[in-house]
Amino acid sequence: MCCNSKRRFLLLYATQKGQAKAIAEEIWQQAGAHGLEADMHCISEMDKYNLETEKDPVVIVISTTGTGDPPDTARKFVKKIQDTTLPPDHFAHLQYGLLGLGDSEYMFFCNGGKTVDRRLQELGAQHFYDTGLADDCVGLELVVDPWIDGLWLALKEALPLQKEKEGMDNVVNAVTSSPSPAPRVVHELNLNSEVQNLKLGDEGARSSDVLSQKPDDINSMAPARNTEPSLINSIPPVSQSALNIPALPPEYIEVQFQGTHGENPHLSSLISEETTFEVPVTKAVQLTREDAIKTALLLELDISDTVFNFQPGDAFCVICPNNANEVEELLHILGLSEKGDDFVCVKVKQGTKKKGASRPQHIPERSTLKFILTWCLEIRAVPKKAFLRALVECTSDAGEKRRLQELCSRQGASDYMRFIRESNVCFLDLLHAFPSCKPSLNLLIEHLPKLQARSYSVSSSNLYQPGKLCFVFNIVEFPACPARPISRKGVCTGWLAELAAPLLHPNKNTLDTKGESFSTEKISIFPRQNNTFHLPADPSVPFMMVGPGTGISPFIGFLQHRQKLREQHTDWQFGETWLFFGCRHQDRDYLFKQLRCFLENGTLTHLKVCFSRDSSTAEVAPPKYVQDVIRLYAKEVARVLLEEKGYFYVCGDKKHMADGVSDAVVDILSMETEADRLEAMKILAMLREEKRYLQDVWS
């Protein structure tokens, strides 16, 4: 607990990938400049705080993971407050402000924060500051920065009120048997992703000016200007503005080189809670023609020697490395080419000012430098503003230093969005763009996030192919742009494509004695079970599947499984099955033409396909997209969902497909039930609640 003369508030964070923690640390860091002390804890550390007896204001920063779940670190907390035996005034003494993090590309936006916020309200807690919901789809900072700016004034107003309320509580019995509640001040914010709509008082805005660039210094630091802004070039008004830039994050990591003797940790040690399996890649098939816009591959893994269990509809994660050439390039730029195979010891820097500093869990205490850059750090991550701020101090050229200051400043927010976030600029791109920037190794470890394992849907059935696990993916391509002079492939899909190359293009070295191609390559995987995206437990229940492009992947597993069940249980009754599939061109990227086999043997009852880029000579143009096809079968959709209590599955891209499918279903429900659109939306919400309208979507 904090015990100095500064006024205290409790600061809790619940994080999955580190963003909520980083934002909480920024709040903690800024608090001192406002005469406040943040008592900061991870929300899982329930032995270090007690909301039941908390008298000071509480600030909560919480992210969302999975399909709208609170992060893993918040599970015990959420379970505790959702205890139905708690009285409605359990937290009546509590004042709090909550900042939720989410991504509007996913259906349950900020649901982790909303869940906690709603439950605290139900238990009598009161807002001293309006809830903020930050959207990673457009940039968290568009809401986070002004939310933090306004927080200080709200806290200063809440703290005297809290003391006043305590005083009133102490004398209330002597005054009246039915006291009036203490006045509650809520510092209001109209928080959304449009900066111009943010309502901030001048005092609150000024309170966040941690560091300002003096106007007198601007001309001496500004580089020669072009008329068009870019990653390395700015124009007025940004180029002529005094800048509000964040405070410099304190360094907290120390790296010691220890020679070349030792052994790197096993990859399984990078995964904290899951069992990993190292399995061989036994088969690769290119599902698209060479002239298709995207290249789709199917890989088969041999899991026969493992205890890896899955159901059709489950997903699994692949532990992947960064691109080897990019790692070597990074070592070269950092001047560490000769040190890549040296072992390093990573420790917390003695005397650091960072509260609760610890070695990041994804960084081994001892390993080679190349191991850390290859397997531990996401070197392709879009740099956050705190990282840019730290890079300013490592940059010797005055013009480059000024531009980095602009990009991390409030005045340069739109430039940051346009030239870094939307352009998908990574750390390596920044080092090329700002050649005088020479960061230390400890800075990379402090600011680059964990290299996340990549998730893929299972595209097979263990009944149909025992001991095998298949999955399908497009090779992700990032084309060259002004901020990135070379094109790149996705970190994981590019690596998998390289592993698959010997199987796709065999030569005499990759053929076995039977003339069949084989591979000795292995990949590390771990399960990620999906609790809901499975076949109906009752096989007689009908279901519909919508999966354009690689969204068809889990439905291949569904159909394989259903085919085997039909063969093994001839006395069972099976419901009808529908599949809506779409792609650009019938002859280039129709991924599974063998769908006809499922249709012919009765596993699949109805197959409806569309091709968005194929031309047609028909008098009435055929539908282009799956949502258009679904509308043609409105009565059947309504019958399956409403009369027969069937299931509806959607897999694929959210923004360009899944939202369109949801709209189509709402329109169908409205038309077929003769209800208005709002009522139809309620019906769809009910179907989601009953787990009969299920989505597995990505952005």
TrEMBL record:
Task: List the EC numbers from the record.
Answer: 1.16.1.8
Residue numbers spanned by region Disordered: 204-231
Which GO terms fall under biological process for this protein? cobalamin metabolic process; folic acid metabolic process; homocysteine metabolic process; methionine biosynthetic process
UniProt entry tagged with the keyword Cell inner membrane: no
Localization per record: Cytoplasm
Which reaction is catalysed here? 2 cob(II)alamin + A + 2 H2O + 2 H(+) = 2 aquacob(III)alamin + AH2
GO MF term set: [methionine synthase] reductase (NADPH) activity; flavin adenine dinucleotide binding; FMN binding
Keywords in alphabetical order, please: Amino-acid biosynthesis, Cytoplasm, FAD, Flavoprotein, FMN, Methionine biosynthesis, NADP, Oxidoreductase, Phosphoprotein, S-adenosyl-L-methionine
Q: Does the keyword Phosphoprotein apply?
A: yes
One Pfam family name is Flavodoxin_1
Cofactor or coenzyme needed: FAD; FMN
Q: Which InterPro entries match?
A: CysJ-like_FAD-binding (IPR003097), FAD-bd_FR_type (IPR017927), Flavdoxin-like (IPR001094), Flavodoxin/NO_synth (IPR008254), Flavoprot_Pyr_Nucl_cyt_Rdtase (IPR001709), Flavoprotein-like_sf (IPR029039), FNR_nucleotide-bd (IPR039261), NADPH_Cyt_P450_Rdtase_alpha (IPR023173)
Residue span(s) of domain FAD-binding FR-type: 274-536
Highest taxon in the source lineage: Eukaryota
User: Got a GO cellular component term for this one?
Assistant: cytosol
- Quote the subunit structure annotation: Forms a multiprotein complex with MMACHC, MMADHC and MTR.
**What PANTHER family does the record point to?**
METHIONINE SYNTHASE REDUCTASE, NITRIC OXIDE SYNTHASE-RELATED
Q: What is this protein called?
A: Methionine synthase reductase
